[in-house]
Amino acid sequence: MTTLTPRRRDAAGTRQLLLDAARRRFASQGYSATTVREIADEAGVNVALINRYFSSKEGLFEACLTGADDELGRTVSADVPLDEVPHAIARQLAGPHTGRHPSLLLLLLRSSGDERADEIRLGILRSFAERLAASAGRPPDGPGAEQVLLRAQIALSAALGIALLRSAAAMEPLASAGEDELLEPLQDLIAGLLAGG
Amino acid sequence: MTTLTPRRRDAAGTRQLLLDAARRRFASQGYSATTVREIADEAGVNVALINRYFSSKEGLFEACLTGADDELGRTVSADVPLDEVPHAIARQLAGPHTGRHPSLLLLLLRSSGDERADEIRLGILRSFAERLAASAGRPPDGPGAEQVLLRAQIALSAALGIALLRSAAAMEPLASAGEDELLEPLQDLIAGLLAGG
DNA sequence: CGCTGATGTAAACGCTTGCTGACTTAGTAT
DNA sequence: ATACTAAGTCAGCAAGCGTTTACATCAGCG
Lengths: 197, 197
Fold this sequence. Notes:
The structure is a homodimer. The first copy, chain A, has helices at 11-29, 36-43, 48-54, 57-75, 85-94, 104-107, 115-135, 145-167, 179-195. By secondary structure, chain A is mainly α. Chain A has a domain at 65-195: Tetracycline Repressor, domain 2, CATH 1.10.357. Chains A and B meet through helix 7, helix 8 and helix 9 of A and helix 7, helix 8 and helix 9 of B. Chain A binds a DNA duplex through helix 3. Chains A, B: Residues 12-72 form the HTH tetR-type domain.
């Protein structure tokens, strides 16, 4: 059988260490303000391994995005009723995992300037907005479809903006608001934007 | 008397050229992704003048922020009724000036990492949120004051998120939505978040 | 053992960055 | 004209960047 003791040399393990560290840095500081040496230091790993495992800084960033895509696809299911949407957003913004993973949403706002990476990023955001529109009972097409999608994108904007204001600015009381404190305002926001009319 | 003909060497003029170019670049690409040579080229001015007039890249960024502060104080008055807030936001996001000045709001989301600059930035954002809370009929203190301020900050988050999604992503139909198309959803959002309850 | 491929390390490469100092040019007053 | 100052130019520096190359070390296997 293969070894059960943690290998001192574990390619997949250090790869993951790099991915985690990179995601934290990219999310909190943005792409170009983050240096590969920072990432390597935070991961406790040699700098050259970034290029070995991900070809380039760009490649590492893309890997972070696709990883975020997978995670988002797992946690946020497709057909959640509109009532549950505020819960999901509040959990994503201030859930118990927030310490370790500084809001996956932030990463989706960071651009590297690279075209391919930006396509991935925009693709995730688009599908996010479309799922939101579907939850709002949007018909796949029809007269009001565009309006509902627009409103879903605005709701997504709000979630992303909150993530940014909590992190990049330390705007109180928003920055310290817990999951439950965010829930009520988010419910009213979603209700006004996607349910009422 | 002093000369009335436009001087070919005009310190105040080139200073303003640099400020305008810098604001465009910083807003659209962020601080660290923007190089001083880019700014100088876009302004049609020699690179060294940035350091002459603003001491450093950081100084130029701070000057952009204080300039944005002045402009915001002029355009957005203190006591606008809540009904007018959606108009003001829609105008700021997609008004006729949007081509030249890529949404002042974007600049307020860009961090340079410098402490002083970030204090200025956060100060502008805070006062923005407080004006919003005041429009929502918030009493200066009292039991519900914190909640109203939190909701105002969430409304501000939405505006900032929209600016970001229109620019950094090119998310349709949000990115191409005009002032009038944004107005209705924003009215519903503000109504649900700050008026209703 | 000795060999081999995978994993990690160290040092440097070439390039871009923000910034500087010595210089030239334009405008004005004497 | 001459001298003086403000405004703009130019070449280059030191530092930091992403990346690469050459080397060391370990695991697995005959």
